[in-house]
Amino acid sequence: MIKLIGIESLQDYRLLLRFSDGSAGVYDFARFVEADTPMTKPLRDPAFFARHFIELGALVWPNGFDLSAASLHRTLAERGELRPATAAA
After folding, report:
1. DSSP secondary structure letter of residue 37
2. d(CA 11, CA 53)
């Protein structure tokens, strides 16, 4: 099972995600922010967005919005944006 093991904040709404299989990729969360749902609306505030953390291997924000590592990993792989962790930075 793929889990998140590290997160680094980049500019705008992008995060460098490091996974338990040794891969990493930069994920742009702008589409979640633009969705403007009750769960994603708080992400518009850069200070709130920066409060992300890992819980049980998933990406989570304090309001309970979470994304599984498997879905993030799959999306990055489908886009061809997954790299060995040492090459992703």
Report:
1. -
2. 17
Cβ(24)–Cβ(34) below 8 Å: no
Q: Which of 53, 38, 50, 41 is nearest to 14 (CA)?
A: 50
Is the separation of the CB atoms in 76 and 25 below 8 Å? yes
Instruction: Look at residues 10, 19, 2 and name the one whose alpha carbon lies nearest to residue 86.
Output: 19
Q: How far is CA 78 from the centre of its chain?
A: 15
pLDDT digits (tens, 9 = 90+) for 10-46: 999 999 999 999 999 999 999 998 998 999 999 999 9
d(CA 87, CA 89): 6
Distance CA 5, CA 39 (A): 23
Task: Give dist(CA 42, CA 66) in Å, integer.
Answer: 13
Q: What is the pTM of this model?
A: 0.91
Q: Which residues does 73 contact at the CB level (< 8 Å), separation at least 6?
A: 2, 17, 19, 21, 23, 82
